[in-house]
């Protein structure tokens, strides 16, 4: 569809208001970064920019993590907002699919839906979960959940179940091995892959430094 700056502006206002009290890693600034990154990635792809921008802006409008695990509130809120703006039905359907499938763990076709627009927004969201900002978001979320940052008695690379996370027994460092270090190999676009590589290397370097500092302490205090 043709680009509608007025609708994008109204969407920005709606998202800012809705996320006013959100946790620091899922607040308006996360949405802002994903939106801007998605616009950049979209410049090298043949996509409907309205779908990309609406998808980026609405993708975390009601994250199930903060809504009792309900996966339907986000898509429903996004659809209601878009209907109110009088957007065409096919655009509403496409953006709803982006909101619904962006954070599914599987690859392209395992979800039953894939489009380049979803690929672009998903890459932008994943880029915000890695690198320096990704590290900040992970520890902020861990703090929000009152998790340890690291526990030398709990292996960070041991495969841990979802239940461990639910019960808050996994330190935040474990999240790097469960998810953050896996994202580089799950990027959809060429630009996304390139940006992810650099951020991935930064995280590897960060973890090396983290353990080196931690080891430096052992023997000093005990
Ligand atoms: P998405 O929004 O792509 O579905 P998530 O909501 O799982 O992904 O993650 C959003 C942000 O919250 C990421 O920066 C991620 O690192 C962080 N996060 C999610 N789960 C955890 C966790 N168990 N420990 C630390 N950070 C987490
Ligand atoms: Ni997100």
Task: Write up what this structure looks like.
This protein is mostly helical. The chain has ten helices and no strands. The chain has helices at about 5-20, 30-40, 50-60, 75-85, 90-100, 115-125, 130-145, 160-165, 170-180, 190-215. The longest helix is centred in the C-terminal third of the chain and has 28 residues, at about 190-215. The protein is globular. Adenosine-5'-diphosphate binds next to helix 7 and helix 9.
Oligomer: single chain
Quick one: CATH class of the largest domain? Mainly Alpha
How many separate domains make up the residues? 2
Strand content: under 5%
Instruction: Report the end-to-end length measured between terminal Cα atoms.
Output: 65 Å
What's the main sheet like? none
Average pLDDT, all residues: 91
Radius of gyration: 19 Å
Number of helices: 10
Give the name of the CATH architecture of the largest domain. Orthogonal Bundle
SSE order? HHHHHHHHHH
Corresponding CATH superfamily of the largest domain:
HD-domain/PDEase-like
Cofactors, ions and other ligands in the entry = adenosine-5'-diphosphate, nickel (II) ion
The secondary-structure class comes to: mainly alpha
Helix content: 55-70%
Q: What's the total number of strands? A: 0
Q: Which regions contain 5 or more consecutive residues with pLDDT less than 50? A: none
Question: Remind me, CATH topology of the largest domain?
Answer: Cyclin A, domain 1
Shape: globular
In short:
With 222 residues, this protein is mostly helical.
